[in-house]
Structure formats: C-alpha cells, structure tokens
Write a structure and sequence with these properties.
alpha+beta, two-stranded antiparallel ribbon, 9 strands, globular
Amino acid sequence: MRYEFKEAFTEDLTAQPNKVWEPEDLLSYVLDEAPSFSPGEGWEYSDTNFILLGMVMEAITGEACYDLIQGRLLDPLGLENTVPSSGRNIPGLIQGYAGPENPFGGTDEVLLPDGQFVINPQFEWAGGGFASTTGDLARWARALYTGEAIAPDLLPRMLDGVPARLGPGSRYGLGVILNETPAGPSQGHSGFFPGYLTEMAYFPDLDVAVALQVNTSVGRALSRPPFSVLVELAQTAGTIPGAEATVVH
C-alpha cells in the first residue's frame, strides 16, 4: 500500500508545507487499510515498505538512516553530487513541472520564486529522499548491479525477480526493475517526484550504465517514454567498454 498517493496525505502535505514528517506520521495513512493480498500471493510496489526498512535500519544500528547511507554508500563510492532532500531548499535544483492537476502542492511549477519547494520533500526519507545528478546515478547503477556497492554474493537474491506490473515482461527484485530490452537485459529503477522523472539502469551484456532525468512528471508532455530513450543511449554507449551515459533535459 502506498501512503504517498492517499488523498488525505497529499492534502495534509500541501496544507502544511513546512511540516517535518516522522516515519510514524507516514505509516498512519495506511494502518487502517486492508492488505492488497495475502503474504506471498501477489506483488505491489510500495514506498511504504522502504519507510519501514529505514525504521528497521535505524533500530538495528542505532544510527540515523541518512548517516548510514552517507557513510556506507555515498562516501565510499564517491557520489559527491547526491544529497538528502531533507528540506524545502535543495542546492542546484532546477525548476520542475508537475502539471496543473498536481496533488502535491497544487501548482505546475514545483519551485517557488525564492527557490523553495512548494511542499517539503523531506517526507520521502528512506523511500527515495535524495536529490542526485545523472552522473552519480549512472555510477550508482554500475556500482550496485555489479556488486561493488554490496556484497557480490547478495546479487543473485537481489536480481531474483517476480512478475511486476511495470511494463511488458517486467520483473521486480529487491529494489530493482528487471526488463528485457533491445539492448539486452536491464537492471535499474525509475523515479518519480512531482516535477521530475528519472530512469537509470545497468545493461550487463553491454557493460554500460545509463541515467536520464527530465524536469517534468507529466508523462504525456514527453514525445517518448524516458525508458525507451535510455535503451537507445545504452546501445550507443555500448560501443565504448565500461561506458557511463548520462542525459539531463
């Protein structure tokens, strides 16, 4: 179940743009919901599960989630352009467009004239609460899906996907979307935040990592699905061993 698309949540988020959200606040929007299916009998993407995972990480280690990610992943991998979206001001962020029917703040432009986000993106936390560049995303894809970021013996479990409603033939592993493409199999993830769409993937047959970002979250405003562009970028970059390809629009 996804708390972030509940009408009660988007209304509260919009009405309280300076509110600092605790994980427990987010879970409260779905605690009275019936399960979508019995355990082991279905699949559904859920940001809520990543919020729960963050809470578990903090309980086990006694460290803050953002500190854990910074110290164990971002710093060792040299991802210097990836920062927590922990407040309404995010350095270097360009204007994004979410459409006139945007429920997250109610405006098409997601940045106010003073540079503040129209809502507080801090609510995302362990469910995607980082701002990054295409370069860092491509490097992250390579590090994650080749076993540099995690123990290599964990890769088979992570990449053992189940059928997912994310496109024809798509599967979902542990935090990874698996697709068969004209460039071969891909291992990656898409991203959505009001005003922005992201795609990043590693193509093992080509040994290429690719990332793409666009500053609109209105899919119909784009002439092509971002993932199809990502695949073409991978095919082009595949002529250069070990390449990383990045595009921002």
